[in-house]
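Figure 2 data, in text form.
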Amino acid sequence: MSFTNNLDTDCHQRIRANTTKWSNNIGDYSMIAAIGKGSFGQVFKAVHKSADNNNNNNNHRTNWSSEDCHQRQQQQYCAIKSIDKKSSPNLGKILTEVSIHLRLKNDNILQLFNVIEDNQSVYLVLELCSGGTLGQLIQKYGGVKHYNNKNKKTTPPTMTTTTTNGLDNRIVQPVLDYRLISTIMKQLCNGLDYLHRNAIVHRDLNLNNILIVRSFDCVGELAIKIADFGLAIDLNTNSLQHLTKPHRDDHVMPVPIGTTICGTPGFISPEVWSQMQTVSAKSDIFSLGSILFSCIAGYTPKGALDLSNFSTIACDLICRLLAPDPNDRPTIDDIVKHQLIVGPLQTQRLHPISKITDSLELNINGDGSVFIRFKKKCQTIQVSPDGLNVVIASTGGSSGGGGCSGGQQQIKQKVYNYYSLPQNEWKKYNYAQKFVQLVRAKTPKVTVYPKNDDKSNNNNNNEYILKSSLMENSDFEVTIFNSTTNESKKVLINDFMNNNNNNNTLKLAKFGQRVKQLYEFCLKTEKDFQNSGDRSGIDCFPITFGRKSKIKSDSSTTTLSPSQISSQILRSIQIDGIGEASQLSNGVFNVCFTDGSTLSFQSDSEVPVIFYPTNGVEKRYRKNDLLPDFVKQKLALLPQIVNKLKESQQ
């Protein structure tokens, strides 16, 4: 049987597209070391000699970018899975695996580059992951060697739970840190979402089939890939009725698959164990529950599970994922929105801010803690800057109802850890979380002021990119200035990339490649400085590139004469440790602080204080307004600034 000749046209097209990088001749690969062994073959770390020769031919190049170097290195090494034709009882099954795997391309799916065949073997040229498996990572950090005996009879896990409130020393400490578990689960959900959208069910998701891209030492970024599609099925080709629109959720129809139990004990869903002859994407969701349990407990679930010592939030998600009825299991969207996966809030680098509504008082304090008062319920929640420590306080309220004012009230206070927060308190915490997310969306992390020649390089000389900012929540915002109208517009690149054709995104589309260059530069800068900061212990953000240019009108508009300019700005100086200060002829003092915020003060105005925090949202304060502490701290520097300005005049 010729294996590769039986691949369909689409598979051959994908192989041909990859042959520019990966040779079709197995002699062009050198096997370096065996890194895995299965029933019908081995997996080797290999070097692609053709790519290596190409690299040698290019050694005279001196203009390698960092991206070129990365691709050059990645193209040299690969993993090769060698399958012995004679030993393999079912090449048709392997053909199905290859047909599915060749179609897949996702950041969290191991990529299959090429399929090579000779008289004895079939070779799969795969992406190389050098960090081992998730099971090995769990063992490294204290986990018990996971159960993986496919011949031993076992049953799907069942659960017993108890409710745990407050801080409890009996709560089991996870083998992997909860933040790391959240990172792993998000990437698994991304990979599964891609599979399920394409009507693919993996059916054998376990600790051995989740690969770590590179060696991980608890510092830096962990990246994972879903591997081994030997038991995967395509719902479209296996079903009696093709799906009109493949979908990742409940609309994926169960399909007949025979009566063979497949998968890894401890990760197999009840519907597969009971040989119901049906499977859906919800079978993979069950496996996620077993993986989550393993990351926390350090071993594979089997038999009856006692979750009584698990944290409240972890217990809730595990129970949902391992629900016996597939219809009761959450969707991918539900999982990524769960408290455990979202994780605790973070206020690092966020400036103090206060917001008051009819029912809420919301604050990020100077120390980074978050405080929210629920006026009608007479309750407050205070969360530490890292989001882990939660204090919820309540009062008895005043007699007659209608608020919390009046009379001496007894305060009841409870202290929790985030992961042990009772479910009935999650809603309060969500208010704090959403408030922080809104502030993060307005707080720049990486800011770039492009060169002035951006204006002359575009076809719309009255418009140019004034500033671009990667925000703390990963939004990317571009500010476009129109010199004719003297107005600026802020546009989120998220809308632009999703082709939301409103007026602002149409403006952004005019700048095309330049916007993408700025976006990619900010993303790469964030990654590089984050990795550097993780290893050095230094917080490198926020970062600003370039200088904020003064907005000037076109020559067609009225220009200011030197005498007019001098009549507006009396003097301007740079003050060490404070920033740039200027005094205007109308009595206004402007201070641009080193942290990026700006203060404008005019004593005889109805609005004497105007403050521009680094997120760019203007705050105006009238004479009788209560000033926040962070504004008071800035104002306290004003006498020193005025004296410096006076000294500069002498």
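Caption note: The chain has a mean pLDDT of 79.
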